[in-house]
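for the recovery benchmark. tokens below, seq after
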């Protein structure tokens, strides 16, 4: 018998399944709002100018592709650390943080999860309800029990903050709490500054381990504004994990550029942490690839290119906000009895639109408009050409 005789078919990835159905749809006016990718107003994934310019510089230098250090390109790790914590932050100055280049945000989460399983094996992991669909699977595959803390409140289309806070207050010491640093995926609902104050206080007083996932820095209110939560956590002086990704902010999805930063309580502790993190990396994939890290390091650390990147990222952020506003005002016209104002308050690429599974099904079957069954739509997939068709269709299924 084959050694694979007992291998079951794994369930299909629900979101990739939407794209498969979309690709097979012959309607020329089809729209895919199920994706997690930024499209420009022409419906294309952009190749950023800052990336083209960084690549041109790198081509010019034409350096050989030797192995990178286990923790990645030093210039990249430094640039990421300064971006995430601030170049003049106490953490960077006191060398309390270690940063390792990782294979996207996913790779960063996986490194953090594997590291934690070695040094906090008894801890359990808590993720928001709902969360990015890979959080649970990723921490479970690292060997953790994964629980949900209350997060989204469908009644207010905002955060069930009382529920979240009381869950945090009941978690055992040493619990690992995964928090979306900005632009919550999938809901788009973020905490207010005051709510973060309470969360930071409870996490630090109760000795929980915060794991901040920041996949959308710059898509909410700005690069620094979105990074504020990480910096506020850092000011507590406690240990923390930060995974960040440039997939979206540099439109470099396929290059797999992200990083894991671990903040320790002293430089000496940080050095020990890095030595162990390197073992995790070494036994997973040895060292990261060169190209994406070089592109991002060049763009972040060359002032002219940095400016180009910041402007391009601002352009993406502003376009998404404009689409939010357009969606709301057009829906006000077409479906005046429904209130969609919450869409403007949401941050990042996504919106929990409040559409039901049945309504999402009708959008797909009758209008070739694809969204996630939960009602999540990617606002970054709307553009000036498809928005009217989307609004008309939503008005019809409401
Ligand atoms: N965390 C969250 C919340 C995400 O939404 C994503 C990706 N969409 C990731 C992590 C993973 O990022 P990457 O694609 O860089 O692996």
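predicted aa per position
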């Amino acid at each position: 018998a084959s050694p694979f005789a007992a291998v079951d078919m794994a369930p299909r990835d629900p979101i990739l399944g939407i794209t498969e159905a979309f690709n097979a749809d012959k309607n020329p006016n089809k729209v895919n709002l199920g994706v997690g990718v930024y499209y420009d107003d022409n419906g294309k994934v952009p190749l950023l100018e800052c990336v083209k310019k960084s690549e041109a510089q790198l081509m010019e230098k034409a350096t050989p592709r030797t192995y990178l250090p286990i923790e990645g390109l030093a210039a990249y790790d430094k640039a990421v650390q300064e971006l995430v914590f601030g170049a003049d932050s106490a953490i960077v100055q006191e060398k309390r943080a270690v940063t390792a280049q990782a294979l996207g945000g996913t790779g960063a989460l996986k490194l953090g999860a594997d590291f934690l399983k070695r040094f906090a094996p008894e801890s359990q992991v808590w993720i928001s309800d709902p969360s990015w669909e890979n959080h649970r699977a990723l921490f479970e595959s690292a060997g953790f029990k994964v629980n949900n803390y209350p997060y989204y409140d469908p009644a207010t289309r905002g955060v069930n903050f009382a529920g979240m806070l009381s869950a945090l207050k009941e978690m055992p010491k040493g619990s690992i709490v995964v928090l979306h640093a900005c632009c919550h995926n999938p809901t788009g609902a973020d905490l207010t500054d005051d709510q973060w104050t309470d969360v930071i206080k409870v996490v630090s007083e109760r000795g929980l381990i915060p794991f901040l996932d920041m996949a959308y820095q710059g898509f909410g209110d700005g690069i620094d504004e979105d990074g504020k939560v990480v910096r506020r956590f850092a000011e507590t002086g406690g240990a923390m994990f930060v995974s960040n990704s440039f997939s979206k902010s540099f439109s470099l999805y396929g290059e797999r550029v992200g990083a894991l930063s671990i903040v320790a309580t002293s430089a000496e502790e940080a050095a020990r942490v890095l030595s162990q993190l390197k073992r995790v990396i070494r036994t997973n994939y040895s060292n990261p690839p060169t190209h994406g890290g070089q592109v991002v390091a060049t763009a972040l650390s060359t002032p002219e290119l940095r400016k180009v990147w910041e402007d391009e990222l601002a352009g993406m952020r502003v376009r998404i906000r404009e689409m939010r506003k357009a969606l709301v005002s057009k829906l006000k016209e077409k479906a005046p009895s429904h209130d969609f104002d919450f869409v403007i308050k949401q941050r990042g690429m996504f919106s929990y639109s409040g559409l039901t599974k049945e309504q999402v099904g009708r959008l797909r079957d009758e209008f070739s408009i694809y969204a996630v069954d939960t009602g999540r739509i990617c606002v970054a997939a709307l553009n000036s050409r498809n928005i009217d068709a989307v609004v008309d269709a939503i008005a019809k299924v409401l």
